[in-house]
Amino acid sequence: MALSNPYNAYNQYKQNNIITAPPEELTLMLYNGTIKFANQAMLAIDEKNVPKAHELILRTEAIIAELNATLDMQYELSKNLRALYEFISDRLLQANISKDKKYIEEALVIITEMRDTWKEAMVLAKKK
C-alpha cells in the first residue's frame, strides 16, 4: 500500500531512522530535538504565541526527562549529568512560567555544549 502523501512518507522515513539507529545516534537525535524545540519555543515567545511556546517548552522538557531517565547511576558521570539535566529542567520550568527567553537561552548553552561533546565522543569512538 502506497503512502497517500509525501508528508506521510517523510514521517515513515523518520520513524524507520529512529527504530534502526544505534543508541549513540538516538542520544544525538534527542539532543538535536531538544535544541530544535527550545529554539522554536523562543521564537513562539517572541511572537507572543503563549500556547505554542508552552507546548514547545513541554516537548523540550520531555526530551530532557527522557535523557535523565536513561542514565545509569552507577557511574559518577551519570550523577553529574543528572545534576545538569535537573538544572536544565528548572530553567525550562521557569521559562514556561514566565515566558521569558532568558531561561531557555541558559538551558540552550548547556544543551548545545552537551550535544557537541557527544558528537565529538562519537567521532573518537569510531576512530578506535
From TrEMBL:
<protein>
    <recommendedName>
        <fullName>Flagellar secretion chaperone FliS</fullName>
    </recommendedName>
</protein>
<comment type="similarity">
    <text>Belongs to the FliS family.</text>
</comment>
<dbReference type="GO" id="GO:0005829">
    <property type="term" value="C:cytosol"/>
</dbReference>
<dbReference type="GO" id="GO:0044780">
    <property type="term" value="P:bacterial-type flagellum assembly"/>
</dbReference>
<dbReference type="Pfam" id="PF02561">
    <property type="entry name" value="FliS"/>
</dbReference>
<dbReference type="InterPro" id="IPR003713">
    <property type="entry name" value="FliS"/>
</dbReference>
<keyword id="KW-0966">Cell projection</keyword>
<dbReference type="GO" id="GO:0071973">
    <property type="term" value="P:bacterial-type flagellum-dependent cell motility"/>
</dbReference>
<dbReference type="InterPro" id="IPR036584">
    <property type="entry name" value="FliS_sf"/>
</dbReference>
<keyword id="KW-0143">Chaperone</keyword>
<keyword id="KW-0282">Flagellum</keyword>
<keyword id="KW-0969">Cilium</keyword>
<keyword id="KW-1005">Bacterial flagellum biogenesis</keyword>
<keyword id="KW-0963">Cytoplasm</keyword>
